[in-house]
Amino acid sequence: xxxxxxxxxxxxxxxxxxxxxxxxxxxxxxxxxxxxxxxxxxxxxxxxxxxxxxxxxxxxxxxxxxxxxxxxxxxxxxxxxxxxxxxxxxxxxxxxxxxxxxxxxxxxxxxxxxxxxxxxxxxxxxxxxxxxxxxxxxxxxxxxxxxxxxxxxxxxxxxxxxxxxxxxxxxxxxxxxxxxxxxxxxxxxxxxxxxxxxxxxxxxxxxxxxxxxxxxxxxxxxxxxxxxxxxxxxxxxxx
Amino acid sequence: xxxxxxxxxxxxxxxxxxxxxxxxxxxxxxxxxxxxxxxxxxxxxxxxxxxxxxxxxxxxxxxxxxxxxxxxxxxxxxxxxxxxxxxxxxxxxxxxxxxxxxxxxxxxxxxxxxxxxxxxxxxxxxxxxxxxx
Lengths: 239, 133
Fold this sequence. Notes:
heterodimer; A: Beta-Lactamase; Arc Repressor Mutant, subunit A; five-stranded antiparallel sheet; B: disordered C terminus
């Protein structure tokens, strides 16, 4: 359990206590999606997106930078087909500053992004993971700009919620031990079974097998399943 | 052309078929065909006869004393390897923290069901491909 739980359970009416119970139980991306989607709706926004602020590409696209979002399907791809997200003022500002910023569709001298995406307003809240990697929580919708108190509430909630998301979903677990289920899946991979075959054997979905496999790759710091099995044998994790 | 997604709803309340069916019809970008079974035995039979089901939405309680800890493994034993989502009007029971142990992939409060959530789940579970060899 986290130290500082009291922060989320104080009587302050803008703290994250409404979400603390959900955050502490969240298991996967679907759970975090539910929580973030609910926060957006509670504050009269239509959508949220968590954006990666780092990129290996010289021309980052919106689709590539999205970490988790509830944008309408296809919107990011349609945007990328017509515009360059890396050139947007919003993305550049997020690269240069850690301040929360507000963007509207009627101030085209500032940025055209809101018009191009079809939203009237966006609130950008930079956040970061424990390893220093930078992200931004962006709430979008057709509403007026929030007052300072609501902006502060959202800024606090975004940072608080993102920390849970980072630790539970994004954190690189390299060096940590494998769980019993991961060991089981590693064993079947070493026996040459495919993901769909392992799913049948272990009684989980193929998606879950692939998810565990990706985690094992991270934990063993290898790039593919062949190297995974070779390293697991070398390290005497499996025989 | 929108892609058709076949979803099986397993719920002992037929009204849920109407409610969720109406909601699914509002999902954009996917044409969802919803199938319905009222109990776990008919669901396992259905899955054996229909290999095109992408996802199962499983009501937590299909009968007295029978929650997803008993029913989700039966779907897996029937050979279904797609995502299973447990739906319930309350997710507060501690055993909801152990969904993966029973072969389920996600849980969703019925009150949180909306077209955006359905679109996200389809995108989430269709997007992941097997890691490279």
